[in-house]
Design brief:
Blueprint (H helix, E strand, L loop, with lengths): L9 H4 L17 H4 L11 E10 L9 E6 L8 E4 L3 E8 L8 E3 L23 E7 L4 E6 L4 H6 L4 E6 L8 E10 L15 H5 L7 E4 L5 E5 L4 E8 L6 E5 L4 E6 L2 E6 L5 E4 L4 E7 L6 E8 L4 E9 L31 E9 L4 H8 L16 E3 L13 E3 L3 E9 L5 E5 L4 E4 L6 E6 L1 E4 L4 E8 L3 E7 L2 H5 L3 E6 L1
This protein binds CU-O-CU linkage and copper (II) ion.
Length: 484
Amino acid sequence: MPTDGFARSPITRRRLLGAGVAATCVVLPKWAHAQGRAADAPDGVRVLRAKPGTARLRGADQAPTPVWGYDGAVPGPVLRVKRGQELHVRLINELPEETTLHWHGVRLPNAMDGVPHLTQAPVAAGGTFDYRFKVPDAGTFWYHPHQYASEQLDRGLSGLLIVEEPEPVAADRDVVLVLDDWRLKPDGQNDEASFRSFHDAAHAGRIGTHFTVNGAPAIQVAAKQNERLRLRIVNAANARVMPLRFDRARVTVMAIDGQPAEPFEPREGRVTLGPGNRVDLFVDCTLEPDSSAPIMLQDARAEVPLGRVVCEAGAPLRAAPLPDPKPLPPNPLPARIDFRNAHRLDVPLDGGAMSQTMADAMRAGREIPGHGIDPRARLWTMAGQASSGHHGPPMFSVKRGRTVMLAFANKTAWPHGMHLHGHHFRLLDNLDDGWKPFWLDTVLMGPRETARIAFVADNPGKWMIHCHMLEHHDTGMGAWFEVT
Ligand code: C2O
Ligand code: CU
């Protein structure tokens, strides 16, 4: 499984940009105002209905697929808010079962985190819940259910939350790319039987075979000469690791998992996203008129095109490309992390096909009944425990402000993407406690890899740590910790 990408050793391959570039004044065109603001009710509440719908996942000329989506759409509507402002979303559950809304990557108050049983009661079919909080960080975030998440996400429930910088950013236009994969039957219906696949849960998770960008088979983005696009990309798949390659275009990584990074050009235009990862890229349209820059996804056997940026003939947007970008304006993250008194914990990840954990589950003859994958099917463990992380005792508890260092050791034959709620963390170097020049909320690990992370536990409440390969989470790879 290729995990070659930004999470590996970017220091050696990144090229620092932006140093010494004179301040440029870029007039921002309409995009900043073009996409609707979040409110659609007179009192400023954005109503979001989780409900069944249909989507033409295989193209306009193919039969549509029945889905579940926010406002019935796949992906759900892009929500926009400015940093520091309040987001107020009223979730109306028009699904035939319970759900919740989780704001992936947002450092919000615990009661708004949308984790069933841990931070709120699940929202019953027909019920509603108001999510209301100030967004502390500008960047690209993602919303999705946390109840029966593996199945609800794979039916289509998720959408992008864009938090705008209050300061101007030197890009002309936002382009959202929600990447997903689907396991469809020949008639285009979602292969529902495999939602409960024991086999998938014990291996890589439910990997789909049809790719979509924003709910369609591919995307074509037309751009003017010398226009600068800001691509906001999320891997919304349940389990697929997405190694992307940007061919011909010069791309600059500006933010990872919603947080500004030191801008760098990824080697060979390659960026790998695990489930739940986001990346913001700047792409300057500098190809000859009428030529295009493909966006490729590495599948198990071949590279498949997800879309392309087409540099149009016609009047250029400006006479020359913009200068190398400066970093995005910073978010209010901890300026320093004090390691002296850190709470240190080893978190071995174990289980899955061919493991002892799995052999035990098989011997006990556990069935996968009813709804979703039964969490009692303990196929995976974190620090020796198999849990959903929605119930049970905490993995650890720390006082507010304490530094936490977790050493994940993936002892399995499968990749895992460990996601932390309510905080962003630093990825530590292997040899010392130095860290990579970016923040993450989800760290992708290949088979047998280790990853050490550090963060300041500065957000009080009950927070989850879990694998974002959602079938792994369902079958044991979840935990929570408390900040008091
Ligand atoms: Cu994106 Cu706990 O989830
Ligand atoms: Cu996993």
